[in-house]
User: Fold these one by one.
Assistant:
Number 1:
Amino acid sequence: MQKDVSGAQVLARCLSSQGIKYFFTVPTPRLEPLIKALESQKDVRVITTHNETAAGLMAEGYIRRSRLQAAVLTDAKGRAISQICGVTNAWADKIPLVSLALCEDDEPDCNKSVERWRFDQRAAFQAVTSWNIRLTSLEKAPAQILKALQESCNHKMGPVHIDIPFKLLNQFILADSVMILPEIHQRPVEPVRLRGEAASVKQAAKLLMNARKPLVFCGGGVKVSEACPELMNLVETYKIPVATSMAGIGSVPISHHLCLGGPSYTSGEVFHVAIKETDVVLAIGVSFGGLDGFGLPPVWSGSIKFIHVDVDPLQLGLNVQPEVSIQADVKTFLGQLTAELMKNNFYGNQKWTSWGKMLQNLKCDRAARLDKDAESKGKMMHQAKLAKELGKLKSQIKDDPILVMDGGNTVLYLAMYAPDVDPWQVFYPFGMAALGGGIPYAIGIALAAPDTQVFLITGDGSFMYNLQELETMKRLNLPITIFINNDSAWNMIRSMQNSFFAQNFVGTDLDGIEYVPIARGFGLKAEKVTKAEDILPAYERTRRERGPAMIECITDKINTPDSLLSFALVEFEGALKYLNPLRFLHSVFLMRKMGLWRNIYQLTYIIKALLRINPRARRS
Ligand SMILES: Cc1ncc(C[n+]2csc(CCOP(=O)(O)OP(=O)(O)O)c2C)c(N)n1
Ligand SMILES: [Mg+2]
């Protein structure tokens, strides 16, 4: 009997029949049969890129927005390693990316001459995937692929890796000997509705009802669980102040009176005061990372009782030691909790209103100061002004553009000044906070939402990580506008050198780079602006026809977001107990260079947050 299907065809059919329709790759001769086979499948698109890291990030961006699974496909070894950066971002943010890479088997290897040791590729992916496998035979491949896809979308949700021995691609087998998987058109990423254990929910409700100053702290898990309405219902019914992690931004509108905003990096002292004074924190779908001060003293009060709810058991008890920990889907849990509170005829606590009011006053104080900063006049455009202007521009556009953020201070300024964003309209690699995802994310997201405009707002440093993909953007003619915040610096790092290292600037200036010719070199329309009022006309000129465009916005590198001082809090407070008094005096001596007022302002900020004192807020 004639063996009639190739390995490449078997694999392409399995993946496509299981709803994987987008593949992001860097082609190589060895991948050719698989790419050809994929392209012959119905509705499959293979997007070729210039770098495996970018390919991974594009696939991830596609999944983040479409909530459909997609794959990154690369050749082996160096090419596979290059995809790991994208896979790692997916792992940190629980994106069910399908990572595919060829691998060496005992095949004669074209790279053998340089292979001095056997590289265990699968092991390299192990740390950053929730599951991985090496295909063993074509007969078994369909079942193995199906298992991988199911593992990526279980309650833990995350990327999976499949190693494909190169020799399988060119083998032939009988079509009859391959299991035919039932055809599905798409593979949607859906939350797993896991119920919390009833006794623990009861315990959580009891703890919450007895709280003096409760706080809800929510993370990206709220969005993924589609639990924003339930969250809003809980905080509004019981008037509980709510803060979000960076990943949770948008779960509650920042302008809502009970919302304090993101963590300290974006909401400043209001967050510090809240996490020092609260006695019970209901932490939902959040993993307490470094950006959140780990949920631990000295940044958070040590006497907080935490109720921690997450669908992934590995997150529970990882940093904070919760009083009550519940493995559950956030939406399902919130339903259970509200039912339990109602069963107890609980309708809130009068004291919670004044607690919320005090925090709200702090928030308003800060908002007034931020507005003043944005209006401050200098020779160059203030970064706050740029962020505010871009927020305004975004809200003026009819079809609410999607916002992709990349950078350091650029992202902080945006989170502080941009208007409310829907959680599915804003994208950033929260878990790893890795620079450079902006351009690839924008591409993946634009492919997932072809009729929506995408705004990529990026720092100048971050823009340069993956700028080769401007070619991909142009080739696909995607409606992306890149706004570069050109402050000629790695400014988040430079700001630290400014504030804490006596302006000893080392390696953080990025002067003399002309971004407009770079973008035009790739065929993008591009303009440079130096004033906020020129942004809208430049945007309109570049948007006269479909396709990508870039607007380089020149800003003042001297500006520093005040909330960046939270870094100091995290680091200084942690270091205080080890502080050598002589070194401390030396630092004060060095700080004199920063100028008296700047010093006083920064010290007051730190002291206020440390001592939880804000007399103005307390007066109300
Ligand atoms: C991949 C990676 N490398 C380094 C860092 C550390 N880092 C955080 S912010 C920053 C500076 C970013 O500069 P830019 O993109 O110009 O944004 P800006 O801070 O100037 O707004 C750096 C180097 C990081 N987060 N990720
Ligand atoms: Mg910069």
Number 2:
Amino acid sequence: MVLRHSSTLFFSSSSSSPLFFTKINSSRSFTSIKMERGEDNGAKKVFVAGATGKTGKRIVEQLLSRGFAVKAGVRDLDKAKSSFKPDPSLHIVRADVTEGPEKLAEAIGDDSQAVICASGFRPGFDLFAPWKVDNLGTVNLVDACRKQGVNRFVLISSILVNGAAMGQILNPAYIFLNVFGLTLVAKLQAEKYIKKSGINYTIVRPGGLKNDPPSGNLVMEPEDTLSSGSISRDQVAEVAVEALLNEESSFKVVEIVARPDAPKLSYKDLFASVKAHIN
Ligand SMILES: NC(=O)c1ccc[n+]([C@@H]2O[C@H](COP(=O)([O-])OP(=O)(O)OC[C@H]3O[C@@H](n4cnc5c(N)ncnc54)[C@H](OP(=O)(O)O)[C@@H]3O)[C@@H](O)[C@H]2O)c1
């Protein structure tokens, strides 16, 4: 069901999801809003792009364990079936972010209330893959959200995407990640598109990703602050899910790493410590 609506922000509370951004319709960018409850059981539904990736899979698992329904966007349905345990709240759909906004809008459907983008190019022979996936693919997802009136977007990006402006042009990580297909430049372009889209976003920029369990407390900084450090993918997934649960994460870019000596802070305080963007 789609309803016409003017430009208003709504937050809602429920026992299954304490706080979740349900819908916005900016008169500038949107013509419709979505139903507040996407599932028969009332769980909020989140579409995850790149759901079979190492971070994407963790995001799916954490969303399910926090009571969300999940639509897992994947390129390979067979791979996905063997990646996830059967769960009545999990729906797997085919979604290649390079195939354009129309197909992605179909995959997202009219029952998703937020999108988390955890896709990233897979190294191969196509030198343009980072541009196609990390820039244009994310842009396609944003456009698909507009088509479906989805107004909450969480992007897993990276520290150093704006390394040149930070004076980090000679940082080996900046050079390495750009030398093959301008990966960081591609991600920065996608970030700029999201910021201009009018959609409520949280851009999460992690340091180097590790498969190990968390080994330190989370450090959260404003954009263009961190130029080194690492973090467990489990923590990155947790930040993505917490972004949906914390109003303070709206319209923010947060850079994250983990450090053993960092104080343990609540997500509310961490997100509140970073300023929102006002266009
Ligand atoms: N590695 C690092 O240290 C690091 C640091 C900072 C940020 N990041 C970023 O963090 C994100 C997650 O990283 P990760 O290492 O956990 O990811 P990953 O394991 O490499 O997974 C990437 C995911 O993207 C999917 N994908 C690739 N091309 C796609 C397409 N055309 N359409 C839809 N999905 C596509 C892959 O699908 P398949 O499973 O089908 O291949 C996979 O699910 C990425 O954006 C990455 O650039 C990484």
